[in-house]
């Protein structure tokens, strides 16, 4: 029997489950919850205190688990009685799992469906709740969330907020959220040494290192083109996420970007400084306002700044 890991944060308490939950203990999978039963809050809190980050389900229950996630999305994100912290935990866990699944199998229909659902969850949460972005953005990565995935989640959250400020509709917001989650998929295809370039300041890279790093947008786009379920708009956004209107971006050195392309590039540029390079949100904004002037439209930078301040990310 095969088992699939799932994040604890995607299992809401007090909801009857249509699948069995297992924990992995001393090299064995132990049944924790039977079908039809619900996970109690005290049990969930106990597991979190024990730093157990994952449950496991049988592979045959994958469909039931996905249906459970769809129901939670429909019933919970808009429910005012559910605390914001619980909503953010669910959105984050759902998104992390989606990105991990796409890293493993970018051609999977189910994995892409999971990514679309995760992106929609983020969009609904952030667009409809004034406090959501502040609660979501900048949460410290945990042992089970690597830096690359945390960066992708933060970018996905940021682009939704900026897109709303720029009066883009829900379709554009969803597309940007999906692209934010998957934009650095190409980096996961580098070897271990090449992946370390993700942690470096671009300007300090050697010419050879830059040539290697500049390939990652096209690598992600090529991977996703092979998945017939991925919208070409998403592929195009991802291909352009390192482009700048000055022509100093890559891989195509574009000088004209659509508004969604420019939003994704700006949010990626900003969050790379915060999540990867360890700058404070305030200091990263100051650097962007100086170093990136001319790379992005001033009006967009000002809207981005306003969003960060209005949401309490920068004080």
Secondary-structure blueprint:
Layout: E1 3-7, E2 21-25, E3 28-33, H1 41-49, E4 54-58, H2 62-76, H3 84-104, H4 109-128, H5 132-136, H6 147-165, H7 170-182, H8 192-195, H9 207-213, H10 216-225, H11 232-239, H12 259-276, H13 281-291, H14 298-310
Antiparallel strand pairs: 1-4, 2-3
Shape: globular
> How do the helices and strands follow one another from N- to C-terminus?
EEEHEHHHHHHHHHHHHH
Domains, number: 2
Instruction: Give a count of the beta strands, DSSP E runs of length 2 or more.
Output: 4
- The fourth-level CATH homologous superfamily of the largest domain is Hypothetical protein af1432
User: What strand line-up does the widest sheet have?
Assistant: 1-4
Comma- or semicolon-separated keywords:
single chain; 315 residues; mainly alpha; Hypothetical protein af1432; 2 domains; two-stranded antiparallel sheet; 55% helix
3D architecture notes:
This protein is mostly helical and 315 residues long. The protein folds into two domains: 1-60, no CATH class; 77-310, Hypothetical protein af1432. 55% of the residues lie in helices and 7% in strands. The chain is built from 14 helices and four strands. The protein has helices spanning 41-49, 62-76, 84-104, 109-128, 132-136, 147-165, 170-182, 192-195, 207-213, 216-225, 232-239, 259-276, 281-291, 298-310, and strands at 3-7, 21-25, 28-33, 54-58. The strands form two sheets. It has a two-stranded antiparallel ribbon with strand order 1-4. A two-stranded antiparallel ribbon has the order 2-3. β2 and β3 form a beta hairpin. α3 (84-104) packs antiparallel against α4 (109-128) and α3 (84-104) packs across α6 (147-165). The protein starts with a strand and ends in a 5-residue tail after the last helix. The relative contact order is 0.09. The model has no long low-confidence stretch (mean pLDDT 91).
């Amino acid at each position: 029997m095969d088992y699939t890991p799932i994040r604890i944060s995607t299992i809401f308490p007090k909801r009857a489950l249509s699948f069995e939950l297992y924990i992995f203990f001393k090299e064995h999978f132990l049944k924790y919850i039977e079908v039809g039963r619900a996970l109690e809050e005290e049990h969930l809190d106990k597991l979190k205190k024990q730093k157990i980050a994952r449950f496991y389900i049988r592979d045959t229950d994958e469909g039931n688990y996905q249906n459970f996630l769809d129901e939670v999305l429909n019933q919970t994100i808009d429910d005012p009685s559910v605390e914001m912290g619980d909503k953010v935990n669910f959105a984050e866990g759902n998104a992390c799992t989606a990105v991990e699944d796409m890293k493993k199998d970018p051609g999977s229909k189910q994995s892409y469906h999971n990514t679309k659902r995760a992106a929609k969850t983020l969009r609904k949460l952030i667009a409809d709740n004034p406090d959501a972005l502040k609660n979501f953005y900048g949460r410290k990565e945990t042992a089970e969330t690597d830096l690359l995935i945390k960066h992708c989640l933060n970018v996905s959250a940021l682009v939704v907020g900026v897109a709303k400020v720029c009066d883009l509709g829900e379709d554009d917001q969803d597309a940007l959220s999906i692209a934010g989650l998957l934009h650095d998929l190409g980096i996961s295809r580098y070897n271990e040494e090449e992946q370390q370039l993700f942690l470096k300041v671009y300007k300090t890279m050697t010419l050879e290192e830059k040539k290697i790093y500049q390939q990652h947008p096209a690598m992600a786009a090529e991977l996703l083109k092979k998945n017939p379920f991925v919208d070409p708009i998403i592929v195009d956004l991802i291909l352009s996420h390192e482009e700048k209107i000055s022509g100093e971006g890559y891989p195509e050195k574009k000088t004209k970007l659509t508004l969604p392309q420019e939003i994704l590039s700006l949010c990626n540029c900003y969050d790379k400084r915060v999540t990867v390079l360890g700058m404070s949100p305030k200091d990263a904004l100051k650097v962007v306002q100086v170093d990136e002037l001319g790379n992005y439209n001033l009006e967009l930078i000002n809207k981005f700044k306003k969003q960060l301040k209005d949401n309490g990310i920068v004080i």
